[in-house]
Structure formats: structure tokens, C-alpha cells
């Protein structure tokens, strides 16, 4: 992302009535081709150009405590909400919320949910995102339907942590995710 491109893009987005942005560096980020070396720099630039027009979201990483300081910096620069990387156990999210609270991060942290359908899909996700799951979760996979596991995770977060908003990583599986959401709605 260059400043010149962003200078053209921001007014265009405003003209179209788009006011929510999700700022991430992305998997193929190349600092040699960008005017911004970090997402914090981009957030600061956007806020300087547009004040509070845009509601800015950033990524949160429940499995990486080292990134909480960088997350706090993004919030201090004007990020308005966080979408977490996908996780598979409610205690991971709960611990993450506590660590963020300790770091004085006080914006909504929306849990990221990845509705995988098979062990192979899960393994690919775990490898790609460098995420590990507990032995307890692995044992759960052997005895339960994987979509039931995801449904129970969402219901657990809703019922026990009062979570009202979720981000589903559909990864081109919209129909499966829609079916999951309908099933969850019936259980609420």
C-alpha cells in the first residue's frame, strides 16, 4: 500500500459511504513495496487524513502474547475493534480477553470462528496460522462431529462469556457457515 494509492482510495470509500476498514498486513506483505512498514503506521496515517470517519478494525492473536503490546499501540492510535484469529477452545478466548484487559485494551474483541469440516482442513489451518490445539481438543475431535464442536464453542462463548458478535472465517464456504449459524440460532 502506498500513500498515493491510499490518498485516492480514502475519499473514494467515503463517497461510497464505506466507513469500516479492517487493517492487516496480510500474508504476502512486502515492506519494500509499501510506504507503511506496520499496520500501526497505516492506522495513524488514515486517522490523520480522515479523523474519525472510519471505524478501524485490526487483528488480534490469542495464541501470541508478544503481540499484545503491538495491539495496544494500534488501539492507542485509533483502532476501534479487534477480530481475533480463529481459536477452538473458549478458555483461549477468555484468557486473551483477560490479557487484553490487563494491557488496558478496552475496545470490542470479536472472536474469530473457523468452521472446519475435517481433520485435514483443521490441520491445514493450524499449520498456516501457526496455531496449536490442546490434547483435550484433539480427543474431542475423535468422538464428536466437528461442526457440533464449533456450534458448542459459539454457544459456550455466548452463554458463559456473554459474547454477542462473532466473525466467521468462511473461506469460500458460505453455505456451510450459513447452515451453522441457523443451527446456532435455533439453540439460543
TrEMBL record:
Q: Which GO terms describe its biological process?
A: methionine biosynthetic process; tetrahydrofolate interconversion
UniProt keyword Flavoprotein present: yes
Which SUPFAM superfamilies has this protein been placed in? FAD-linked oxidoreductase
User: Which UniProt keyword terms apply here?
Assistant: FAD, Flavoprotein, Oxidoreductase
Q: Hey, which pathway is this one from?
A: One-carbon metabolism; tetrahydrofolate interconversion
User: Which cofactors go with this protein?
Assistant: FAD
In its keyword annotation, does this UniProt entry include Oxidoreductase?
yes
UniProt GO MF annotations: FAD binding; methylenetetrahydrofolate reductase [NAD(P)H] activity
- Which InterPro entries does the record match to this protein? FAD-linked_oxidoreductase-like, Mehydrof_redctse-like
As for family, the record states:
Belongs to the methylenetetrahydrofolate reductase family.
List the protein's name.
Methylenetetrahydrofolate reductase
Q: Which organism is it from?
A: Papilio machaon (Old World swallowtail butterfly)
The top of its lineage is: Eukaryota, Metazoa, Ecdysozoa, Arthropoda, Hexapoda
Amino acid at each position: 500500500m502506498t500513500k498515493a494509492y491510499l490518498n485516492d482510495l480514502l475519499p473514494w470509500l467515503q463517497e461510497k459511504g464505506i466507513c469500516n476498514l479492517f487493517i492487516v498486513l496480510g500474508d504476502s506483505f512486502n515492506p519494500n513495496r509499501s510506504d507503511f512498514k506496520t499496520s500501526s503506521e497505516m492506522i495513524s496515517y488514515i486517522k490523520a487524513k480522515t479523523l474519525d470517519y472510519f471505524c478501524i478494525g485490526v487483528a488480534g492473536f490469542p495464541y501470541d502474547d508478544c503481540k499484545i503490546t503491538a495491539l495496544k499501540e494500534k488501539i492507542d492510535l485509533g483502532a476501534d475493534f479487534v477480530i481475533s484469529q480463529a481459536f477452538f477452545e473458549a478458555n483461549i478466548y477468555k484468557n486473551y480477553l483477560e490479557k487484553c484487559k490487563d494491557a488496558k485494551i478496552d475496545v470490542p474483541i470479536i472472536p474469530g470462528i473457523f468452521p472446519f469440516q475435517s481433520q485435514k482442513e483443521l490441520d491445514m489451518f493450524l499449520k498456516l496460522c501457526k496455531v496449536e490445539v490442546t490434547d483435550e481438543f484433539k480427543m474431542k475431535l475423535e468422538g464428536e462431529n466437528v461442526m457440533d464442536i464449533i456450534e458448542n464453542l459459539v454457544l459456550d462463548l455466548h452463554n458463559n462469556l456473554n459474547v454477542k458478535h462473532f466473525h466467521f472465517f468462511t473461506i469460500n464456504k458460505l453455505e456451510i457457515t450459513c447452515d451453522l449459524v441457523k443451527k446456532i440460532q435455533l439453540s439460543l
